[in-house]
Amino acid sequence: MILITGAGPTGLVLALGLARRGIPFRIVDRRPGPGLASRAIAVHARTLELYDQFGLADEIVAGGIPIRHIRLREAGMAVAAIDLAGMGGDLSPFPYLLSYPQDDHERFLVAELRRLGVAVEWNVELVDLRDAAEAVTVTLHHGHREEIADFAYVAGCDGSHSRVREALGIGFPGGSYGQLFYVADVELDGARDSDMVMNLGARSFALRMPVRSQESSRLVGLVPAALAGQADLGFEPLRRHVEGLLGVKVARVNWFSTYHVHHRVAERFRQGRCFLLGDAAHVHSPAGGQGMNTGIGDAMNLSWKLAGVGCRGACPTVLDSYEPERMAFAQSLVATTDRVFQAVVSPGVAGTALRMLIVPILFPVLTSIGVLQRTLFETVSQVKLHYPHSPLSRGEAGGIAGGDRLPWLAQPDNYAPLRSLAWQLHVHGDVDPRLVATASRLGVALHCWRWSEAAESAGYAANAAYLVRPDGYVGLAGADAGNLAGYVAAFKLDPTRRLPV
Ligand SMILES: Cc1cc2nc3c(=O)[nH]c(=O)nc-3n(C[C@H](O)[C@H](O)[C@H](O)COP(=O)(O)OP(=O)(O)OC[C@H]3O[C@@H](n4cnc5c(N)ncnc54)[C@H](O)[C@@H]3O)c2cc1C
Q1: Which of 80, 152, 192, 285 is most buried by a 10 A CB count?
Q2: Mean pLDDT, rounded, of the chain
Q3: Ligand 1 mutation pick, 30, 39, 255, max ligand atoms within 8 A of CB
Q4: Residue 397 above 90 pLDDT?
Q5: pLDDT at 499
Q6: What domain count does the chain have?
Q7: Is the pTM of this model over 0.70?
Q8: 40 and 127 both lie in a single domain
Q9: What separation in angstroms does the CA of 277 have from each of 14, 206, 227, 302, 335?
Q10: What angle do CA 91, 207, 95 make, to 5 degrees?
Q11: Higher pLDDT among residues 468 and 365, named by residue
């Protein structure tokens, strides 16, 4: 039995991944039910691609608002517009940023779990754990009743103040930024749209995007230094400043809060039979809205590995790959968002240059250059995330190496087979009959498409075979009858296992 501690987005997605594979687990949360605040609203393309593997992306997209354009302002004046669909149209089936509030998101996941027969155990708090060689002994508080139970694995998805991380004695180095931020969900007077608007004036970062409906907007920004020390700061003292920067009139404030931003990465993401995921493992600046998306990525990464090693006899190396894969990404993300964040909010020369020179003068030019547009989309949407140094990544064929995300092709849709959540082979062109025989003997599903220009421009090599992992990343690029059998044997994979639900 596996224990998931925390039913935020990370824990819920891990639960979904295990439930879809028929793996026994429990999920507990000390809260009485799903969160009530909208918190994270930006859902990126890679997260939607992963949800698509579970057949859930369409419903999630229908519940949110796709944002296809970002309009940039400087000191309250429009300076540039970015077309996300233009940037990512051939990279992902979801070439936009989806506004989908975290409370709706969590309720959706809880309902999906219920549909699969899983109930989250609310009002249950993990207070202690001891990790021994054979099991993890956990103390859970159910109100006044205490339960002590053993679990094969514990997944700490219990947020930035993680009790799991603390009980394991894993450090959480990093720091906090001095600046105070505000966040507000408001209704606007006058014209509305479903664009994101971002203002980058000197010391006056502010952002608006629609949330829940086009009548309602999320505002995020820096509290001006003169107001930052004010006790119980509400929206009214900020009104003129915010309305001027974003060019809006706020008719009603539904939610307002202020917060400080932290950047930390845990020293380890795994210790023995315990794992850290989501905010328990890493927290970053709000630049790019990456926190929740990264937690969901952690959960998608761990769920098939826990299922394979914990219940289906796969080699422990598969589970060992969780930490290097996800830690490398978290560290680079924290460094990147930190650099962007510092440049945006810094009162120094670099920050001023970015806001007063790059944004108004260079950005309109830079964002009209195709290559830079793609890089921007690839980075923010996490479709560029790859695992080149993973122990599971092998080989190279064409422009695709082991550890790369399988490049998407629209026609025919090469992502459709990924919904089986199983290891599989993809070939564009002709397949070697010896590979067909080996794949059939090992029970690896083989998907073959006619060679196309689209496949060539996405980086595929004609007639090359790519062994794809259950999470849509390439395990072995340039597979043949020999190295396929070697790969499956080395990691003791069982590709014949089909989904129970
Ligand atoms: C204002 C705001 C805006 C944000 N915007 C974005 C955005 O646009 N995009 C984005 O990607 N991210 C955004 N984030 C970050 C995002 O909200 C977090 O990264 C995300 O909530 C992390 O999810 P999680 O499941 O890892 O942790 P959490 O959401 O913190 O969930 C942890 C859960 O664990 C439970 N728990 C804690 N301790 C215990 C225990 N001992 N026993 C049992 N249960 C326990 C808690 O009750 C909680 O339900 C934003 C954050 C804020 C505050």
Answers
A1: 285
A2: 90
A3: 39
A4: yes
A5: 59
A6: 3
A7: yes
A8: yes
A9: 9, 30, 35, 9, 18
A10: 10
A11: 468
Q: What is the arithmetic mean of pLDDT over 125-154?
A: 96
Using alpha carbons, select from 220, 160, 179 the residue that is nearest to residue 39.
Answer: 220
**Measured CA distances, 242 to 111, 214, 429 (Å):** 37, 19, 56
Q: Average pLDDT of 118-129?
A: 98
Task: Quote the CA–CA distance of 468 and 457 in Å, as a whole number.
Answer: 19
- Residue 378 inside a domain? The answer is no
- The answer, yes or no, to whether any atom of ligand 1 lies below 6 A from the CB of 41, is yes
Q: Are 332 and 356 in a shared domain?
A: no
Task: Indicate whether 355 and 484 sit together in one domain.
Answer: no
Task: Please state the atom number of ligand 1 nearest to the C-alpha of residue 124.
Answer: 43
CB-side exposure of 454: number of CA atoms within 13 Å? 13
Measured in Å, residue 161 CA sits from the centre of ligand 1 at 10
Q: Report the CATH number at residue 20.
A: 3.50.50.60
Ligand 1 in reach of 157 Cβ (< 6 A)? yes
Report yes or no on 409 lying in a domain.
yes
Instruction: Tell me whether residue 400 is in a domain.
Output: yes
Alpha carbon of 415 to ligand 1 centroid (Å) = 29
Do 119 and 248 belong together in one domain? no
With a 6 A CB cut-off, is 285 part of the ligand 1 pocket? no
Q: Which numbered atom of ligand 1 lies nearest the CA of 183?
A: 1
Give nearest CA residue, ligand 1 atom 49.
8
Q: Which domain holds residue 482?
A: 394-490
CB 239 within 8 A of CB 250: yes
50, 128, 158, 341: residue to mutate for ligand 1 pocket, most atoms within 8 A of CB:
158
Q: Is the CB of residue 7 below 6 angstroms from any atom belonging to ligand 1?
A: yes
* Residues 413-438 pLDDT 10s: 999 999 999 999 999 999 999 999 99
User: Domain containing 72 — which CATH number?
Assistant: 3.30.9.10
**Ligand 1 atom closest to the CA of 140, numbered from 1:** 42
Q: Is 159 in the pocket of ligand 1 (CB under 6 A)?
A: yes
Which residues have C-beta within 8 Å of that of residue 462, sequence separation ≥ 6? 428, 429, 451, 455, 456
Band of pLDDT at residue 501, cut at 50, 70 and 90: very low
Are the C-beta atoms of residues 12 and 19 closer than 8 Å to each other? Answer: no
**Please, which pLDDT band fits residue 44 given cuts at 50, 70 and 90?**
very high
* Average pLDDT of span 65-94: 83
